[in-house]
Amino acid sequence: MNKLLSIALICFSLTGCAYNSVLINYPSQIAPIKQNLASPSPAAKLPELAAQIDSNDGLLYAQEAGRVAQVSGNFEASKTYYEQAISAYKAFDDRATISASDLTATASSLVLNDNAIPYRGPGYERIMVHQYQAFNYLFSGDAQGALVEVRRSNQLQSSEQARYQKSQKSVRAMANGTIDSEINKLDQATGTVTSSFLNAYSYYTTGLLHELLGEPNDAYIDYRKAAQITPNNKYLQQDLVRLAKQLSMPQYDEFKRRWGDAILPKKGQGQVVMAVEKGFVPEKQSLTVPFTIDGNWQTVSLATYQPHRQQIAPSTIQGLGTVLKAEPIANIDALAINALKEDLPAALVRQAARVYTKSEMTRSVESGSKRRNNEADAAAILMQIFNVVTEQADRRSWLTLPRQAQIARQYIEPGEYQIRLGNSPAAKIDVKPNRATLIWVIETGNQTRFYSIII
Q1: Could you list the residue ranges that cross the membrane (predicted)?
Q2: pTM of the full structure
Q3: What value, to the nearest 5°, has the Cα angle with vertex 350 and ends 347 and 356?
């Protein structure tokens, strides 16, 4: 009876953690938030997100809250939420020793599941926080603050390379048939994207800000980095040709031969530069395998992604005199899938430790029952149920991120324009002579929102 009571108390205590994904999967929690982003009132549930920033998954909720406020056009509020996420990342970095809370979370994960471990975020999410914080500064009128943030995102992409190399060695060291099969499936889903941290969208944004703010040499460097990741984007190719010509770079002749000569503005023209974000990153799915150990049921649950990704059509922008077709610069969904693949070795180690721990707990309960003259072992049965119910895959990830980012760029005559993305309502933009109008388009389901600024 004491063991029955103990198990019941554990199960009861879990209800307090349910909102933090221990028993209720994270995608189902965030679904109402995404529904609101596809409605005219995207910030309706923002207070609910903000209320969870002090929770076990606080970093994740801060990222979601920052994105929701940003999509709503509240850049100052978004800036505050992202700053909380950045502070949380720094706190994880600065933690030199394992704390009591770390030990408690790790122990809880062995008895429950990985959702008991505080959310720390993969590298691509951290990079996106700084890129989006740069947009907050830019659209709030602080161009220098925006440059600081995009430089931070670039530094993070460099620092993630060592971690990536280490993870690749771990993947090879733990290779077996099951792991190989899962990695091959994830490889098929990512296409040509080979890591989670190399983000051409982030590099392009950095290069664009450098160029528009009068730093063409720095812009050229970042455009080249973006082109190494996404080499077939014609707008990025034109950026490289134009800057190579402007800066008298030795690569100009090669770029001209491969992509044609630079398209330069006519006298008095302005330009429009568009960053188009479409859809939502996919949700992690659960791969659950039941099995028995000494006749007792156990399950193993790992996060995975669907192997087949639907293609996203290029966006068409109308209202500029000619139809402008955007081209992909980054597939954020592929970055997410690669992040999961890179975390697979550590997840498998935790999974093996959890299976052993739960098996030993069940064995201990059974041994106690046998000492009571083989009475009906209700405690052991309840223990098996507990093991199965608490085995939940860690499906947490930043789910309000876009699935894909596209870019477009064109020189046009100055004036006022009414532009549309596909069948969206028209949005008014202004184009000034010898200036650039940056247009940020966010498509979330049935809603398309336009934010523009003249630089």
Answers
A1: none
A2: 0.83
A3: 140
So where are the chain's domains? 20-454
Rounded to a whole number, what is the distance in angstroms from the first to the last CA of the chain? 72
Report the CATH fold assignment for 20-454: 1.25.40
The residue type found at 419 is I
Sheet holding 427-431, edge to edge: 324-325, 316-318, 415-421, 427-431
439 token code pair: 């247009």
- Distance between CA atoms of 52 and 168, rounded to whole angstroms? 34
Exposed / middle / buried, residue 375 (Cβ in 10 Å: 0-12, 13-18, 19+): exposed
In this structure, are residues 270 and 411 in contact, taking their beta carbons and an 8 Å threshold?
yes
- 379-383: long-range contacts, CB 8 A cutoff, minimum separation 24: 379/3, 379/4, 379/7, 380/296, 382/4, 382/7, 383/7
For the segment 381-428, what is each residue's pLDDT rounded down to a tens digit?
A: 555 556 556 667 889 999 999 999 999 999 999 999 999 998 899 999
Least-confidence region, from 185-189, 226-230, 244-248, 404-408: 185-189
